[in-house]
Amino acid sequence: MAQIQLAGISKSFDKTEVIRKTELEIEDGSFCVFVGPSGCGKSTLLRIIAGLETASAGEVRIDRKAVNDVDPSDRGIAMVFQSYALYPHMNVRENMGFGLRMGGTPKAEIAARVTRAAEILQITQLLDRRPAQLSGGQRQRVAIGRAIVRDPKVFLFDEPLSNLDAELRVQMRVEISKLHKSLGTTMIYVTHDQTEAMTMADKIVVMRAGVIEQAGAPLELYTNPDNAFVAGFLGSPRMNFFKARMAADGENVATLPDGQKVPLPALANPPQPGEELLLGVRPEHMDSARADARLTLPVDVIEHLGTTNFVYATGPAGETVVVEKRDHADATSHVHCMIEVTNMRVFALTGARLR
Ligand SMILES: Nc1ncnc2c1ncn2[C@@H]1O[C@H](COP(=O)(O)OP(=O)(O)OP(=O)(O)O)[C@@H](O)[C@H]1O
């Protein structure tokens, strides 16, 4: 197990800075997920930790020792790639033991480690097959097995599930979480899928354009986002944002574009009178008896999911999603959206959270 620190890490490719002065601490034994839109720098940061990419500035520390000059193979790290990267001419047993064989581990030791890893991943019956004779999910297990046999201090996963179909993704997600529980090893996992991040992580690191927007426990980020980007990125369907204008007379009330007034939660640093704001309300906080403001919106589409319905309507700020628990949604052409003020998040137009 190992603790990882990134101290002032920056990275440029041909003068373009893709990672900017990153500070991060990943606790020993934790499951840390880097999440963010395509191109935000998640894989680059992971590759810097692995030593596959050199940082332009800053220090990578493993267990408080700088490893910038340590070879990838000597960092005690094993990486699992999206592409699996299995050797097609070798069977599963040989693929899993290959790295150890190259490192000069005795044959008997390799055999014992491969057997144990295969048992953990329940692929013992596949050990004599070649990659072409395996399904996508089985190949992914072999790739993880190859990492396990190395008994690393840290596992790095780069979008390991993106080649799998939706059902298998969910299954493998649970398996990787179980693996983390049973091994207790530090894991860092890159994905652009916010559901994977929310369900797997002890700590989520939300990135945008080479910068960490916020890092913390999933529920902390979900309920207490620092800015509108994090608030909008985590959660499905995503948070609704309404443009509104703070009252000019000092009252703690904002006006929506359609003229309706919405009371605001008490804020330690309230907005300026007349300031334009973004009010963020999650879909599940728009169908409640404890509502403080009511919007009646024309319904565009209703998605029936069994116990709940997602109702898509057009609100004063564009598309609005409401989670309806009751089953009357399809009988109406309009939906009544209730805004719970205690669960509303208020942002400046810059996206910064007002608290
Ligand atoms: N070897 C390279 N040379 C030049 N630019 C690169 C190189 N590798 C990555 N980049 C650029 O760095 C930025 C970050 O890329 P990176 O692959 O880390 O993003 P990502 O968040 O992992 O994206 P994705 O989810 O699409 O994989 C991108 O703009 C990418 O084009």
UniProtKB/TrEMBL annotation:
Gene3D superfamilies in the cross-refs: 2.40.50.100, Nucleic acid-binding proteins, P-loop containing nucleotide triphosphate hydrolases
Family the entry assigns: Belongs to the ABC transporter superfamily.
ABC transporter domain mapped to chain residues: 4-234
Group of enzyme by EC: hydrolase
Cellular compartment(s): Cell inner membrane
Cellular component, GO annotation: ATP-binding cassette (ABC) transporter complex, substrate-binding subunit-containing; maltose transport complex
Predominant location: membrane
Gene designation: malK_3
Any GO molecular function: ATP hydrolysis activity
SUPFAM superfamilies per the UniProt record, alphabetical: MOP-like, P-loop containing nucleoside triphosphate hydrolases
EC number: 3.6.3.19
CDD domains per record: ABC_MalK_N
Keyword Plastid attributed: no
InterPro entries: AAA+_ATPase (IPR003593), ABC_transporter-like_ATP-bd (IPR003439), ABC_transporter-like_CS (IPR017871), ABC_transpr_MalK-like (IPR015855), ABC_transpr_MalK/UgpC-like (IPR047641), Mo/tungstate-bd_C_term_dom (IPR008995), NA-bd_OB-fold (IPR012340), OB_MalK-like (IPR040582)
Source organism (scientific name): Devosia equisanguinis
Membrane topology per record: Peripheral membrane protein
Protein's name in the database: Maltose/maltodextrin import ATP-binding protein MalK
Keywords for the protein's UniProt record, in alphabetical order: ATP-binding, Cell inner membrane, Cell membrane, Hydrolase, Membrane, Nucleotide-binding, Transport
Top-rank lineage group of the source organism: Bacteria
Transmembrane segments: none
